[in-house]
């Protein structure tokens, strides 16, 4: 190892760090000025954030990968925004859940995440403006839709202003090293289902599988019980000081959960957006097909179609539809107008930028 060469590189890094530091602070000063211009208005601008992150990725000359530069700029914007006004984000607690991880992935570490006892409470706190935004899971690639979030969106005045896609890795966690003496394993029902094969192969039948309210709750219980293990993610492992006995034990390697971000604002178009709606269709043959004709006729791509009981009558359903584009885009606007003519109930849940990170 050449000590001289090492010193040269470190000196160069020291000089660059000073430049980065000064540039970060002048960026922050501009954000603060923008905050003044906005006055008491809406500070968080998802459309602008998506544009900043996409542009950085387009301009990135490497060697840092696009994902890394996007993550770094995500944090830079998070800190700049906090100078304008710190954001508070409601999520289904306790601390260490995947939803908290999704909130931090979307808003960065400067946002203040607030654990709520239920998704209902998280919605209520944002509806009453006690907190700024809510992050809620909406679908998992293995387990399907999260019904409660869908149901809440039907009647909530909140609008979707973003989406977060998170790869879900589950680990087998315990207070101490080794699997000897484990008599029960705590996990959320979805985690138990997602790790079913692994559990069958790797733990004896005598180990009881106990379903609990969240993965973080599973980790908390395991931290208090030497005979128990938990299935949970990295954040919960760190939060409750648990040892990882086995990593990435999910059966499906692409196990992914999609979360929605909801607040009080409408978000402008970015050119790469999604629009989510909920519609009712009469209970007769061909009704859904007819209802959707304007979507296909206007060349709008549907990315999701999910039915839920409407709660209005037996065997009445509402349909949650995601489509590509913004409700201000001409083809989406025409499709929505056509849909509205064919049904008694259509609600635009929001148009928002497609997930960047
Ligand atoms: O452009 C703005 O409106 C800003 O407030 C600046 C900024 C940024 O740091 O780039 C910060 C927060 C907003 O959510 C979007 C962007």
UniProtKB/TrEMBL annotation:
Residues in Chorismate mutase domain copies: 1-88
Record PANTHER family: PREPHENATE DEHYDRATASE P PROTEIN, PREPHENATE DEHYDRATASE-RELATED
SMART domains recorded: CM_2 (SM00830)
Record InterPro entries: ACT-like_dom_sf, ACT_dom, Chor_mutase/pphenate_deHydtase, Chorismate_II_sf, CM_dom_sf, CM_II_prokaryot, G/b/e-P-prot_chorismate_mutase, Preph_deHydtase
Organism: Aquitalea aquatica
UniProt keywords, alphabetically: Amino-acid biosynthesis, Aromatic amino acid biosynthesis, Cytoplasm, Isomerase, Lyase, Multifunctional enzyme, Phenylalanine biosynthesis
Descriptive protein name: Bifunctional chorismate mutase/prephenate dehydratase
EC number annotated for this UniProt entry: 4.2.1.51, 5.4.99.5
Role this protein plays: Catalyzes the Claisen rearrangement of chorismate to prephenate and the decarboxylation/dehydration of prephenate to phenylpyruvate.
Signal peptide: none
